[in-house]
Amino acid sequence: MPTNLRPDQLVTLLRRAIRERMLVPGQSLNQDELARRFGVSRIPLREALRTLTGEGLVVMRPGIGAVVTELHAQELTELFDLRMQIEPALTAATVGRVSATELAELRLLAARIDQLAASGSDVDAWSTQHYAFHRRLFELAGRRHALRLVMQVVNLMEPYARLSMSLDQGQDHAHQEHSTLLDAIEAGDPDLVADVVTKTIGMSRQRLSIAVESDAAAADPLAALLVDLQDER
Fold it and tell me: Residue 121: pLDDT above 50?
């Protein structure tokens, strides 16, 4: 059924599908199938894929076509380094800018994250709320160029962050991190805000490294043997 979706709407849908692992890293994107499912012609779809290629979420491979970007360990390290450079200062910039109403909004978002964790909801629901919390926090800093850059990095990493949450108990750490962060913003302490964010990114780096190794071993049983061999040397 034709939907008349615009290219920007297709970008939003596909970006979310990649972020939420409906389309997984390394997956080939069949343009005919996607056009059929979205009820559009290939023209707006191609335009959407060009936008996603510019954002780094999709790559075009000769003889294959559009493929969801697959990040390797070195690339993930580079992206974590970028987050370390941008996020602490960006989040600290919310100090003195966030109104009482906006702070209450952030606390409500954080409370919803806690409720999802306590109810045993699936990782996808928790991760979607977690993503919304941090995006809103970054928006409130009032720095649109930094927001654009950091969200591009976050979108690239989100499929892997969800993987780490599915293999690790990262949800257990989020409550204290969010509580401390929001208290620091309310107290007007930008240094503490930056410190909390820096430590959170460091912990995320450790969790993701373990999760990616576990996922690689599960996908390729021989990978575990190779790791053992390297450990023996």
Answer: yes
Contact 163, 211 (CB under 8 A): yes
Using alpha carbons, select from 133, 143, 132 the residue that is nearest to residue 94. Answer: 143
CA 69 to chain centroid, in Å, comes to 13
Reading the block at residue 107, the tokens are 């606390």
Q: Where are the beta strands (DSSP E) in the chain?
A: 58-61, 65-68
CA distance 65 to 114: 41
Q: For residues 146 and 28, give the distance between their C-alpha atoms in angstroms, rounded to a whole number.
A: 31
Backbone angles phi, psi at 145, to 5 degrees: -70, -45
Q: What's the rounded mean pLDDT across residues 41-49?
A: 95
pLDDT for 118 equals 87
- Whether the per-residue pLDDT at 33 is higher than 60: the answer is yes
Domains of the chain: 7-68 (1.10.10.10), 73-221 (1.20.120.530)
Which residues, 6 or more positions from 18, have their beta carbon under 8 angstroms from its beta carbon? 52, 57, 58, 68, 155, 159
Report d(CA 95, CA 160) in Å as an integer: 30
pLDDT in tens, 151-181: 999 999 999 888 777 655 567 778 889 999 9
How does residue 190 score in pLDDT terms, banded at 50, 70 and 90? Answer: very high
